[in-house]
Each structure stands twice: as C-alpha cells, then as structure tokens.
Design brief:
19 strands; rod-shaped; three-stranded antiparallel β-sheet; mainly beta; four-stranded antiparallel β-sheet
C-alpha cells in the first residue's frame, strides 16, 4: 500500500493507500524430468494470488498435453494454503523424445479478466526403455546374464558358455565389433551395441589320420606287396610301423611327435593303406593314430606337438 502526496494552490492533499495485487507462478516442476518410457511423471505447479486460478497443463501449440508423448494417469487436482494454490497431475511418459531434445510442458494459471494469466514451463526428456530392445539369443549358451542398472537406464547382457569338460571346451565365436561376450543398451539409443557371440564347442583330438611318404626307393624289387607279411624288401607291416615311428624321411613322427617317442600314441593297423608308385619311386602310407586320453590335444598345434 502507498499514499500519494500532492500540492494544489498551496494546500497539501494525500490520497488514500492502494494495494497492488500480484499473481504469479512461483514454481513448476516435473518429477522425474528425465523418465524412461513407461514411467509416471508428476507435474506440480504452484501459483499465488488473491483468488484461486484455473490451471491448465499443455504442450507447445496445443491446449492439452500431446497424447503421443503423455497420457493422463491421475487427473489434475488443486490444493489451497492461504493465497498459495498447487495443481498436481500425474502423466505417463508414452514415447521417447530424446531425439527432439525433449518436450516442453507449460503450466498456465488463469485468474480471470481482472487479474489475467501467468504461465511457466519445464522440459521433460523421455528416454528409451532398454527392456524393449531385442538381441539374438544364441542357442549354444548355458545362460545369458542380465544386468539391469535401473538408475542409469543401461542394461547389459552377457553370454555364459557351458563348463569345459575333459573332452570338450567352449570358445566364443565369432568375436569382433559386431559380436561380443557382453553387449550394452543405453537409454539414449534404446539399442544394443552388438550381438552376442555363440559358444563354439571344441572337441579334444582323440585321433588323427597320418599319411607318410617314403621316397627315393631305388630297389628294383616290386613293392606292390608292401605292408603285408609277403613283402621281402623291408616293408612288411611291422617294418612300416617302425618307419612311421622313426625319424627317417617318412616324416610322420616329425608331424606327430608321440609316434617317435611311442608315448601316448597307438597306430591302428586295421585299415592301413600302402600305395606304391613305381613311376615316382615312393611309397605312400596312410594310417589312423589314436591318442591316449591323458594327452591334452585341443588345437592343431598341440596335436602336431603331442609328446
């Protein structure tokens, strides 16, 4: 209130006091202001004034909230405390709007023709729900472990392969920028950054087909009966086995070292093949070598170095 003093013809005149009635919105909030899609958001608008205003919540260029992004959960309610009025409304964030930098929501308090209208605004950025994101589920997985970090909206999925056994072990395949052991989805994208790798089963080597070639044979004797007891040129079955286990130019023991040491290898004589080439002067031998179960042979390199 204030008085106005003025002088008229030497006399002082003082007007009566005036009261200026102000109306305003003191706060407007959305909680949370960064929801995940599907989350409820509470709108709270606080206004002051001599009379109770009519509150309206709406989005840009609309008289209502855009139903594409927000739907009503609890209708607007107004509470009063003296000359303070609070309007609250609960809405559901229906769709992500992060790609458009969020949605501006307005609160308008209308005090009527005598006092006019006031408004305030806030921005709600709705993020993707990673629970809706899809990824390939490898059938070879023992299980897939989900880590849902709800406070940040990030979800990771990790593949777990079956436990290794004495005859088989598992490796992730493929493993590159597109296939990983652990994949991550963030609320900003709503997508996983890769697909899960598969569990590739690696079988332990239990046997190997060996082919050895004996070359430079100068004997004019016929070797068509090699690998049989009828051979008289030093190439009976027993003599051929000895050559495979030796370190001569046959080369088999160099490739599979347990043949040379006779430790952990068994040459299966059933099905052994011997092919004599009189033109080239060499004898090609094919045989199955079985490895002892005590040997741990998982790769080609280990198989070649089995000793």
């Amino acid at each position: 209130s204030s008085g106005i003093n003025a002088e008229y013809g030497g006399g002082a005149v003082q007007s009566a006091g005036m009261t200026l009635k102000l109306s305003e919105i003191s706060s407007f909030t959305a909680t949370p202001a960064d929801p995940i899609t599907g989350t409820n958001v509470v709108l709270s608008c606080v206004a002051t004034g001599e009379t109770a205003p009519t509150f309206t919540f709406y989005t840009e260029n609309r008289k209502i909230l855009d139903p594409t992004y927000f739907t009503t959960v609890t209708d607007k309610a107004v509470s009063t405390s003296g000359t303070t009025y609070t309007a609250t409304m609960t809405v559901k964030a229906e769709a992500p709007n992060i790609l458009r930098s969020g949605e501006t929501i307005y609160c308008m308090a209308n005090y009527g023709a005598a006092f006019g209208m006031v408004k305030d605004q806030t921005t709600v950025i709705t993020y993707y729900d990673c629970n809706d994101a899809t990824f390939r589920t490898p059938s070879s997985a023992k299980q897939i472990v989900k880590d849902d970090t709800t406070t940040t909206g990030t979800i990771t999925q990790t593949i777990q392969c079956p436990a290794d056994s004495s005859t088989a072990k598992y490796v992730l395949t493929p493993q590159n920028d597109y296939y990983k052991e652990t994949i991550t989805c963030t609320k900003e994208t709503g997508k996983y950054d890769a697909q899960l790798s598969s569990c590739g089963e690696v079988k332990k080597f239990t046997s190997s087909n060996v082919r050895g070639r004996i070359s430079g044979i100068t004997s004019s004797d016929d070797l068509w009966q090699a690998c049989t007891d009828s051979n008289t040129n030093g190439f009976t079955l027993a003599e051929v086995i000895t050559k495979l286990q030796g370190s001569d130019d046959c080369g088999a023991s160099a490739g599979i070292q347990c043949l040379g040491s006779s430790a952990g290898c068994t040459i299966k004589t059933d099905g052994i093949t011997c092919q004599w080439s009189e033109t080239n002067g060499w004898l090609t031998i094919g045989v199955l070598v079985e490895f002892d179960s005590s040997l741990s042979l998982w790769t080609i390199g280990e198989k070649k170095c089995a000793d």
